[in-house]
Amino acid sequence: MSASRRLLAIGWDAADPELVQRMLAEHHLPVLATLLDAGAWTLLDGYAGLGDDAHWMSFSTGARPGVHGRFHFEQAPHGEYQQTMLMRDQPGPLAPWWVGLADRGVSATVMDVPKSPYVPHPGVAEVVDWMCHGADSDQPSASASELHRLCLDHRPHGAFRECYRAPLGDEAIASHVAAVGERRTAFTDAATTWLRSHDHDLNLAVFSSAHCLGHRYPSGEAGPDRVADELEVLDAHLGRFIEAWGGDPGRVVVFSLLGMHVAPDAGAENEGTVRALNRHWLQRHPSVGWRSAAKHLKSRSRGERGPVPTADAFTPVKLIAPATAIRLNLVGRERRGIIPEERREEVLGWLVDRLSELCDTGGEPVLAEVLRTEEAFPGSRHDALADVLAVWRLRRPGRVHTSITHLQPSEDRQR
Q1: What contacts 242, CB < 8 A, 6 or more positions away?
Q2: From the CB of residue 384, how many other CB atoms can be counted at a distance below 10 Å?
């Protein structure tokens, strides 16, 4: 194997570019700074309003969200309203790019690339759902038994779903931060052990710790900046990877696909906005279908088994968290569709106009842009996406500074 073919690629999941650049300027990331002094850097342009599922799936397959169909970790099956966990084998028969390289004789080690297709290949030593953020399964899978055993031996705290639960109190916070650190160290210990004993052309590994901490402790909040502290540690672990790999430092890539700018509590704003939109549309555009839907919802008995349907399931829009992503309840596409296909463009236009007018209580716009997803993310699997995506205007990392107490579009004010 030619040494010139060897590449080490390290992902820092959810490392915000502004924070990284500030820490570089303050000399807190010496290993990364050394690489930059001899190399180059650029900013990646992500998908507006979409999160890590869409970005990682596009990274691994080269396909846009409208093609691969994965945009959130929970999605409603076609024609349904109840959102369920989306697993990596559901988006379709797309293969990651490292499998395509393996078909051409390029050997690879791939460790914990999240939310991506898992396609075992004899030329790829890959482990998935080991210690990534937002694993699709509680148990890791690996294409090589030796790698599988190594990962199981280095997996403190198991599946570790605690990133989605807000720790309460100093003791709980300290325990959570320590657990994230233990997992990061175990990841590096196992991965560097593997790299020292296996000489592959491509070596790709993704750290999850910045993402895990970013959910709970957004950078810029009052108190300790735990994400910044973690990036300093990751910088040192990057040095351990480079040493274990033993290749040319000029063939090292460090990357992050997205930062942590979505607030954990943004869902309340989204739900209130969509409820208000539903209410205004129903009041001003009554029809037999809409009245029937409302009547059906009202007549549901609380004693019935199964989940009680929400208003979203029977109104023109469907909320898909964490962004304000709205799906029309179309006849023929949804199981209980109420919007005729011939009114689709009318409803979409009304929805985009109303969203564009949204302001906070101080009169400031709360949305950066409103996208029709069929135009922004075209592709054969567009139906897996929402119809409209409202991108919130974030005033600072980690918080959406809006307080929408009511929705009163201009058409109402003029009456």
Answers
A1: 8, 31, 249, 252
A2: 25
Centroid of chain to Cα 331: 30
Cα–Cα distance, 256 to 19 (Å, whole number) = 12
Cα dihedral 97, 144, 238, 196 in deg (nearest 10):
-120
Crossing angle, helix 17-25 and helix 30-37, to 10 degrees? 90
The candidate with the shortest Cα–Cα distance to 51, out of 66, 70, 71, is: 71
CA atoms within 13 A on the CB side of 360: 15
The residues of the chain scoring below 50 in pLDDT are 1, 91, 262-266, 288-321, 396-415
> How far is it, in rounded angstroms, from Cα 31 to Cα 270?
41
Query: Any residues with CB less than 8 A from the CB of 222 and at least 6 apart, and which?
Result: none
Q: Amino acid identity, residue 372?
A: R
**CB-CB contact of 274 with 313 (8 Å):** no
Amino acid 172: pLDDT: 84
Q: Do 66 and 383 contact (CB within 8 A), yes or no?
A: no
Q: What is the pLDDT of residue 209?
A: 94
User: d(Cα 116, Cα 1) in Å, to the nearest integer?
Assistant: 28
Rg (CA), the chain: 23
Decide: residue 344, CB within 10 A, 0-12 exposed, 13-18 middle, 19+ buried: middle
Beta-bridge partners for 142: 127
What was the pLDDT predicted at 174? Answer: 87
Q: Can you give the pLDDT at residue 240?
A: 97
Q: Torsion angle of alpha carbons 395, 397, 399, 401, nearest 10°?
A: 0
Cβ neighbors of 414 (< 8 A, separation 6 or more) are none
Q: Where are the beta strands (DSSP E) in 140-251?
A: 141-142, 202-207
107: exposed, middle or buried (Cβ count in 10 Å: 0-12, 13-18, 19+): buried
Contact 45, 287 (CB under 8 A): no
